[in-house]
Specification:
Blueprint (H helix, E strand, L loop, with lengths): L9 H8 L3 H27 L3 H33 L8 H15 L1
Length: 107
């Protein structure tokens, strides 16, 4: 329960609770990248039956796709870093609500 411990511990507890979140999130993004890449290759194979032309298209797209895949991973890492910062909330009413909950429990 959020109201059963001091607010100063909330951030520490949330960071420990979310310890495996990074691995899960980055694994999910990797899976999406792999699925999208396989899809792109499949579409190129179906729409471009000439293997040489298909290979040239893949080679033309490879740099841009790699760039986009890296950007997706970097964006996921940024979101994870922001989520795990030592900022408990930007909602001014949170601490008031937490304090009220703690007072009710003490009564």
């Amino acid at each position: 329960e959020v109201g059963t411990f001091p607010p100063s511990l909330l951030c520490t507890i949330m960071n420990r609770q979310s310890g495996k979140l990074a691995d899960l999130a980055l694994g999910y993004v990797r899976d999406v990248i792999e699925i999208m890449h396989a899809f792109i290759l499949k579409v190129l194979g179906v729409t471009c039956p000439d293997e040489q032309i298909c290979d040239k298209l893949v080679s033309v797209l490879a740099d841009e796709l790699s760039k986009r895949y890296r950007e997706a991973m970097e964006q996921a890492k940024l979101v994870l870093d922001v989520e795990r910062m030592n900022i408990t909330t930007l909602n001014d009413g949170f601490y008031e609500s937490l304090e009220e909950t703690q007072k009710r429990r003490c009564v």
